[in-house]
């Protein structure tokens, strides 16, 4: 009896930091589906199981949407509270943030709407007054101390319990969705620590965002819930379809943009995105958005985000705290850097009305004849010019501190800081254009469309377009960016300027460098990610890339019927390859199939335990039929069931541009090279990436993983 006729636990699975075999995973799923369909005709129970199997994908999407939406709501509420805690505390209950504390107060004024007796600053609590230079110093010191405490807790938790919880997670998720295995990156501990430390990092005041980390959180939810359903737990390709949908859910709860989330997953992170995944992604994103709205974290029944997010490193504890201290010390004096980044963006997007008390809207009101919804261009007051100077300083500060901070190992994202930089630049330009139009409406550029007393320039629109342009330049997003911005602002009429900004920023950024921020991080981390957008235009052949090279030792192979168990184990021990071609014999080198190292190891260990007579001298057969053995010889070991009988092959003269296309479109991990049917060598995904790096004059040894 061949005990390997039954599937063994572990056979067909993958080791950490290896690439999955997409073709094999899809084939396994087709076989499973075919079996379920055939059995469904035999009994009512089997039919119900078939229906349950078909429905499980939608149920999983529902659970992911609910879980991610609930976590996002909790993160938003907690981060809002801790951010306000740096400024003071509510006497009615320390768990209330500033806005909720003053919500029901009857003692607020229109000008000072944020001040109420129930909310006390730290200066009022400690020294009994909120006025004077000493009170300012007390509030300043408490702001810095709270920021340092939050950053210290965040970096300590990440370092001690879940190092994978650092960063935004988007480069790693892109790599995982391409078929790479990083065990623990989407696990339970990563989810718990990322959720807690994201709140702390957002509240500490570092110049980084939470949108990327929310995508990581949603993918953790998807991966954990996949284990509830057998068809997703046991199939890596099916699980990656779920993770693509989970990425869409992350954007949906981060920006309140379910359609933009689906497009972001399709355009930016997904490697394999079939049509059914599109519909399921939309459903999951919709559920998540509805869940977030039900929680109502912003208190306005809206999904619109705009909340701050920050991060710091785990490997150098002091540097984290130094950056936090510098950020807090420099941010406090300027009200535009002291406020949360999402508050700042909301302020910059604002279209001023007569009811606005912000310094940005403190214009000189002359000859007001129109309604408050359509104010004519007005001259700027001293307060507006003061705000412009503060914004100019905030722009320089944000740019420098974001560059220094991004990459530190704490939950962090780059969406909101990038948007803030662009929004500040856009608002500055918008106000400048507005004042030019007011004082020089007879200039050629304004003549014909800007008459005196008209509302010609909207600075808030400039800020919105600037935010989109800056984010597009950093990430190289286009379609999904425009849709996300549209869903954020609700302004359908702004789609044309947003599209123009997105395309222009992409062209300009591509002229400077072809890589977006996520592709750059994938390359810096050495992940084996084959970028679909990168063109291969070199005229090399498969024989130029394959291994072994002329100076290398011969290719390690298995023979179909002439090796013993000891021979196979020695080959496995002495090499580090992920798999071995199976040939007829060393002399003929005619290809039979391909066997993975992990499957061979598990099968031999299991046979030694469960099969009588399997010893080191037992012959190993990869053939369909085992020839008769001498009575005195040990029992043979049949391993045909763990061999891939249809490995992908190319000839030695196949152009590499075709080989690269095959790897991209089929998700291959390796391809065998033959000449007239004889095995010559092997090309792995890592070989292709090293070759592409070499052709681009980059270090080929920067590709770290196989």
TrEMBL record:
<keyword id="KW-0547">Nucleotide-binding</keyword>
<feature type="transmembrane region" description="Helical">
    <location>
        <begin position="214"/>
        <end position="230"/>
    </location>
</feature>
<feature type="transmembrane region" description="Helical">
    <location>
        <begin position="461"/>
        <end position="486"/>
    </location>
</feature>
<dbReference type="GO" id="GO:0005247">
    <property type="term" value="F:voltage-gated chloride channel activity"/>
</dbReference>
<keyword id="KW-0967">Endosome</keyword>
<keyword id="KW-0677">Repeat</keyword>
<keyword id="KW-0813">Transport</keyword>
<feature type="transmembrane region" description="Helical">
    <location>
        <begin position="140"/>
        <end position="165"/>
    </location>
</feature>
<dbReference type="GO" id="GO:0008021">
    <property type="term" value="C:synaptic vesicle"/>
</dbReference>
<dbReference type="GO" id="GO:0005886">
    <property type="term" value="C:plasma membrane"/>
</dbReference>
<feature type="transmembrane region" description="Helical">
    <location>
        <begin position="387"/>
        <end position="407"/>
    </location>
</feature>
<keyword id="KW-0067">ATP-binding</keyword>
<feature type="transmembrane region" description="Helical">
    <location>
        <begin position="316"/>
        <end position="333"/>
    </location>
</feature>
<feature type="transmembrane region" description="Helical">
    <location>
        <begin position="278"/>
        <end position="295"/>
    </location>
</feature>
<dbReference type="InterPro" id="IPR000644">
    <property type="entry name" value="CBS_dom"/>
</dbReference>
<dbReference type="InterPro" id="IPR014743">
    <property type="entry name" value="Cl-channel_core"/>
</dbReference>
<feature type="transmembrane region" description="Helical">
    <location>
        <begin position="242"/>
        <end position="266"/>
    </location>
</feature>
<keyword id="KW-0406">Ion transport</keyword>
<keyword id="KW-0050">Antiport</keyword>
<keyword id="KW-1133">Transmembrane helix</keyword>
<keyword id="KW-0472">Membrane</keyword>
<feature type="domain" description="CBS">
    <location>
        <begin position="546"/>
        <end position="610"/>
    </location>
</feature>
<feature type="transmembrane region" description="Helical">
    <location>
        <begin position="55"/>
        <end position="75"/>
    </location>
</feature>
<feature type="transmembrane region" description="Helical">
    <location>
        <begin position="414"/>
        <end position="433"/>
    </location>
</feature>
<dbReference type="InterPro" id="IPR001807">
    <property type="entry name" value="ClC"/>
</dbReference>
<feature type="domain" description="CBS">
    <location>
        <begin position="643"/>
        <end position="700"/>
    </location>
</feature>
<comment type="similarity">
    <text>Belongs to the chloride channel (TC 2.A.49) family.</text>
</comment>
<dbReference type="Pfam" id="PF00654">
    <property type="entry name" value="Voltage_CLC"/>
</dbReference>
<dbReference type="Pfam" id="PF00571">
    <property type="entry name" value="CBS"/>
</dbReference>
<dbReference type="GO" id="GO:0015297">
    <property type="term" value="F:antiporter activity"/>
</dbReference>
<dbReference type="GO" id="GO:0010008">
    <property type="term" value="C:endosome membrane"/>
</dbReference>
<keyword id="KW-0129">CBS domain</keyword>
<dbReference type="GO" id="GO:0005769">
    <property type="term" value="C:early endosome"/>
</dbReference>
<dbReference type="GO" id="GO:0005524">
    <property type="term" value="F:ATP binding"/>
</dbReference>
<keyword id="KW-0868">Chloride</keyword>
<keyword id="KW-0812">Transmembrane</keyword>
<dbReference type="GO" id="GO:0005794">
    <property type="term" value="C:Golgi apparatus"/>
</dbReference>
<feature type="transmembrane region" description="Helical">
    <location>
        <begin position="186"/>
        <end position="208"/>
    </location>
</feature>
<dbReference type="InterPro" id="IPR046342">
    <property type="entry name" value="CBS_dom_sf"/>
</dbReference>
<protein>
    <recommendedName>
        <fullName>Chloride channel protein</fullName>
    </recommendedName>
</protein>
């Amino acid at each position: 009896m061949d005990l390997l006729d039954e599937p063994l636990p572990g056979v067909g699975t993958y080791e950490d930091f290896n690439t999955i075999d997409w073709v094999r995973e899809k084939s396994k799923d087709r076989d499973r589906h075919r079996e379920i369909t055939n059995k469904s005709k035999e009994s009512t129970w089997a039919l119900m199981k078939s229906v349950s199997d078909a429905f499980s994908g939608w149920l999983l999407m529902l659970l992911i949407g609910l879980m991610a939406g609930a976590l996002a709501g909790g993160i938003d509420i907690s981060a809002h509270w801790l951010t306000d805690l740096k400024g003071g505390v509510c006497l009615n209950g320390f768990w209330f943030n500033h806005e909720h504390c003053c919500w029901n107060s009857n003692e607020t004024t229109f000008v000072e709407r944020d001040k109420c007796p129930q909310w006390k600053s730290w200066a009022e609590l400690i020294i009994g007054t909120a006025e004077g230079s000493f009170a300012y110093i007390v509030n300043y010191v408490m702001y810095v101390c709270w920021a340092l405490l939050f950053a210290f807790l965040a970096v300590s938790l990440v370092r001690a319990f879940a190092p994978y919880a650092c960063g935004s997670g988007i480069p790693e998720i892109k790599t995982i969705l391409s078929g790479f295995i990083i065990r623990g990156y989407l696990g339970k501990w990563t989810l718990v620590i990322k959720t807690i430390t994201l709140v702390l990092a957002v509240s500490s005041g570092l110049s980084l965002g939470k949108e990327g980390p929310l995508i990581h959180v949603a993918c953790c939810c998807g991966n954990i819930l996949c284990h509830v359903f057998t068809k997703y737990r046991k199939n890596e390709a099916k699980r990656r379809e779920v993770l693509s949908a989970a990425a869409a859910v992350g954007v949906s709860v981060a920006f309140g943009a379910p359609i933009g989330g689906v497009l972001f997953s399709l355009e930016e992170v997904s490697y394999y995105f079939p049509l059914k995944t599109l519909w399921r992604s939309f459903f999951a994103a919709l559920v998540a958005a509805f869940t977030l709205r039900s929680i109502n974290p912003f208190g306005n029944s809206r999904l619109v985000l705009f909340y701050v997010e920050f991060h710091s490193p785990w490997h150098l504890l002091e540097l984290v705290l130094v950056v936090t201290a510098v950020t807090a010390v420099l941010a406090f004096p300027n009200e535009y850097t002291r406020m949360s980044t999402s508050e700042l963006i909301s302020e910059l997007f604002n279209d001023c009305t007569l009811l606005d008390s912000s310094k940005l809207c403190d214009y000189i009101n002359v000859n007001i004849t129109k309604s408050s919804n359509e104010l004519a261009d007005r001259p700027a007051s001293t307060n507006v010019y003061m705000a412009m100077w503060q914004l100019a300083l905030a722009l320089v500060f944000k740019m420098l501190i974001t560059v220094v901070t991004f990459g530190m190992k704490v939950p962090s994202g780059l969406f909101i800081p990038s948007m803030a930089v662009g929004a500040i630049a856009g608002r500055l330009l918008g106000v400048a254009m507005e004042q030019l139009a007011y004082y020089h409406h007879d200039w050629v550029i304004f003549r014909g469309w800007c008459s005196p007393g008209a509302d010609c320039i909207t600075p808030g629109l400039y800020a919105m377009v600037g935010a989109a342009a800056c984010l597009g330049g950093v990430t190289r997003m286009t379609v999904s960016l425009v849709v996300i911005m549209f869903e954020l602002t609700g302004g359908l009429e702004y789609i044309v300027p947003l599209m123009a900004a997105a395309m222009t920023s992409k062209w300009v950024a591509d002229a400077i460098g072809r890589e977006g921020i996520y592709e750059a991080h994938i390359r810096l981390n050495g992940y084996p990610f084959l970028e679909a957008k990168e063109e291969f235009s070199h005229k090399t052949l498969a024989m130029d890339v394959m291994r072994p090279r002329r100076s290398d030792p011969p290719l390690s192979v298995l023979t179909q019927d002439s090796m013993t168990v000891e021979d196979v184990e020695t080959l496995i021990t002495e090499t580090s390859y992920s798999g071995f071609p199976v040939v007829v014999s060393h002399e003929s080198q005619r290809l039979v199939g391909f066997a993975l190292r992990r499957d061979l190891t598990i099968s031999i260990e299991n046979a030694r335990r469960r099969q009588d007579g399997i010893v080191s001298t037992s012959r190993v057969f990869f053939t369909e039929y085992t020839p008769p053995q001498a009575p005195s010889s040990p029992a043979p070991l049949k391993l045909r069931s763990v061999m891939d009988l249809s490995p992908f092959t190319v000839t030695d003269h196949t152009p590499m541009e075709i080989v690269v296309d095959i790897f991209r479109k089929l998700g291959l991990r390796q391809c065998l090279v033959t000449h007239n049917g004889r095995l010559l060598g092997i090309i792995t995904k890592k070989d292709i990436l090293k070759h592409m790096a070499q052709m681009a004059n980059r270090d080929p040894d920067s590709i770290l993983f196989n």
